Amino acid sequence: LASRDFHPEDTVVKLDGVTIGNGSLVMMAGPCAVESEDQLMDIACNVRRLGARMLRGGAFKPRTSPYSFQGMGEEGLKLLKKAKEVTGMPVVSEAMDQANFDMVAEYVDLIQIGARNMQNFALLKQAGKSGKPILLKRGMSATVEEFLMSAEYVLAQGNPNVVLCERGIRTFETYTRNTLDLSAVPVIKELSHLPVVVDPSHGTGKWTLVEPMSKAAVAVGADGLIVEVHNQPEEAVSDGAQSLKYDNFQRLMDTVQKIYAVR
Ligand code: PEP
Ligand code: MN
């Protein structure tokens, strides 16, 4: 079902007011984690002003350490919904397990299944049964074929609304947090009809690399980008080092739109 052989035309995923994969570059931006109402509203209004079409923000966070901030939970989802009402941007947020999937689905437009859950087959089946638009992130040690097989789990339940996200893979390189595998974008475009977005924030781990890799991602055919932006990256509870300030996000928006226009 994910294969282009049996479905030659590109899939377009429709959310509340935004379509992904229909020939416009969809910019998704926002904090790694929802931290407070003030933080989220400030970031949402500013990324909107700078041209973002969707708001990202984690309410349930998959943290390496159990002692790190785990996210605001339902409170965070309520704030995302409020930010949508204020800015008009549909929102994307992660569902981390089967127990919270339906709750996340009630509040958000695009449900993220994170890299660590790419092969959580029970969660993928539940995502498929929900019929809700799903943002499926590539596992950090998944091949493209395994990635597409995970999408297949969602599609096989009758849910065609899957957006794929390249977010970097583990390699021997340690300077960057992950190695952003941009060749995966044209590879997936050959093999599959599903829309593909790129996450240069988790893909590099360093804010200085986010703009150059965003430019490259758009040049190789990404349908959108998902970028972490924060009002005070140095104070962020998670992923501050890879989060852009507003002025840098503005510059990124200008350059990627120019590249998109001539691609
Ligand atoms: C995220 O988007 O905040 C996130 C945790 O992403 P990933 O699953 O790609 O690590
Ligand atoms: Mn993050």
Describe the 3D structure:
With 263 residues, this protein is of the alpha/beta class. The chain has a single domain (4-262), classed as Alpha-Beta Barrel (TIM Barrel), CATH 3.20.20.70. It is 39% helix and 14% strand. It is globular and about 45 Å long. The chain binds phosphoenolpyruvate and manganese (II) ion. Phosphoenolpyruvate is lined by residues 32, 58, 62, 114-116, 137, 167, 199, 202. It comes from Anoxynatronum sibiricum. It is an enzyme of class 2 (transferase).
Defining key terms:
alpha/beta; TIM Barrel; eight-stranded parallel beta barrel; two-stranded antiparallel ribbon; 10 strands; binds phosphoenolpyruvate; binds manganese (II) ion; 3-deoxy-7-phosphoheptulonate synthase; EC 2.5.1.54; transferase; 3-deoxy-7-phosphoheptulonate synthase activity
